[in-house]
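User: Predict the full complex structure for these chains.
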Amino acid sequence: MARYLDDFTVGDSFESAGYTIGLEESLAFARSYDPQPFHLDAEAAQRSVFRGLTCSGWQTAAITMRLTVQAGMLEETGIVGTGIDDLRWLAPVKPGDTLHVRGEVIEKLRPANGRRGTLRVRLHTFNQDGTIVMSQIANVALPIPS
Amino acid sequence: MARYLDDFTVGDSFESAGYTIGLEESLAFARSYDPQPFHLDAEAAQRSVFRGLTCSGWQTAAITMRLTVQAGMLEETGIVGTGIDDLRWLAPVKPGDTLHVRGEVIEKLRPANGRRGTLRVRLHTFNQDGTIVMSQIANVALPIPS
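Assistant: Here is the predicted structure of the two-chain assembly.
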């Protein structure tokens, strides 16, 4: 089913499933997109500020997208992000961690005219201990029926 | 060589190498992290707002990280991002596009005390036509010598 701006109300929320990041997946992402020693080499990581191997923050962001897509809040309309505000990496994510996402609509922006509005959704990504590892506000384009 | 907050001045800049996103890499990223029809299925993509297959915006962000790491501005200190402000996806990225990044230091934040400051770096990601496809401000932690 297609979803429109007015199908949502400030305060609407969702909770995603969980996703466990494997060590191989973490290393593969870092090799492709964030080739730094504290993501790739256990010994170098021990000497870094992280005191051990960590996943790329961009992989945490990408997994957050996967979990948000799969939560299906926008159904067939799909998630067309126009931008992200105030993204913060608040705690390290380590290979083997299990992440899940909680999202909440915090604002609806309706243009004076035009067929697309913006839903602003606060996303918190948690690890298995309930620690928030990443927060952000996603701006998502949604159609307005003509 | 390790790099410290005061090794940088507002206005310092870098230009990255280029990176071409292959179709297979685009599909693999979307399958893992952004499984939506307009990233995965050419026919569905034709019917979407993008009018053709596009890469996940999170892959554009990840490639921007790769190019920034490889540009080497922070040398052995490494890039420890604490957060991103004002990330905007400004134009679609399609499989086969070649991206490059331009970065410029726009602000230095020095804590009243403490051994880490923040370098704020504006990043623009361009395609092969010189169109800005993504902009963001990266907040990067940098040590202050004691």
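The mean pLDDT of chain B is 95.
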